[in-house]
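Crash report, auto-generated. Payload:
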Amino acid sequence: MDDAHGVSDAQLVAAARAGDTAAFEELYRRHVPGVQALVRSMIRDSELVDDVVQTTFVRAWERLPKLRAGAAFRVWVRRTAHRAVLDALRANRVRRSETLDEPDARDVRSPAAGPEAEVVGRAVGQEIRAAVQGLPEHQRVVVVLHHFDDLPVHEVAQVLGLPLGTVLSRLARARGSLRERLSRLVANGGDGH
Amino acid sequence: MSVCHRVRPKLADLAVGSLRQRDARRVRLHVESCSDCAAELLALEATGRLLDALTPEPAAPTLWTAIEPRLRPRRDRTWTRRLATAGALAVAVAVAALLLVGRLGGGGEAPVEVAAAVEPDAEHQLIAGLYARATLGRGGDPAAVAVYVGALPAEEEESL
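Recovered output after restart:
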């Protein structure tokens, strides 16, 4: 991933490995939305989501010297986040984000819930997020990583440690469910307007 | 069962690109001749476009301020590694020299004295293990080196 100034993740990883916290902060800035979305798709409690996101980046900083290919940071940090979630779940510290009839208030009402506002409109965005939140967790996670976070399916498989076929199958089942749930929007042509 | 009933469950797979080429070709062939299935496929593709329009929400600005103090400064490991290597070499040379002196002098107890002279820390154990393997490999006296081999921890032995 490059930013507008053309500095790649690999360059930032090299600097961060040498102890440059500013470089690591830039890596954090680039990847925290995706990491947070992944964590939130698995954990419901928003305070604990923040906890796990913090743990993820602290672990990433500590283990960065072990990352051989700096360009792989995008997948690596999300895999670190996924493991941090599983660790937290194993320790029974957090409540898993179960299928919800009512979407998480933070997803729907937060004023920040609007990066898509210019593309599909805030209300439509909220409706889509609510529908995704209603999916079973194993489908929700792949939808968030692939559609919201824009990861190719093979990278989703790497993050979750799943075979590619499993990821594609979950995406297909999720697509079928969402097509039903979002039928009103879909009937408008899928452009959200 | 009609063709539509068999094809319908595969439309979502076709939309996400998970069908094998041959299956995808069959499903497409049906879709071209069935307006209902064609409409369903279009709806599934439109759903994908809706999902693609969303992006992850931004993180709270306070999150980084909570993370930054937890980032411990990195140690410069270059010099510590060099010093460790130099130390290991010095110990190896010393051990080899003492053993040589012991053997030339005919003292059968020399290895024990050597073992006592060098602190049995991890570095020594590693060097001793290496020395033992090299000595035995060259047909050395197993009894003379046994004292070192016994001090070699299993996990380090595995990594050699």
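Post-recovery validation: The radius of gyration of chain A is 17 Å.
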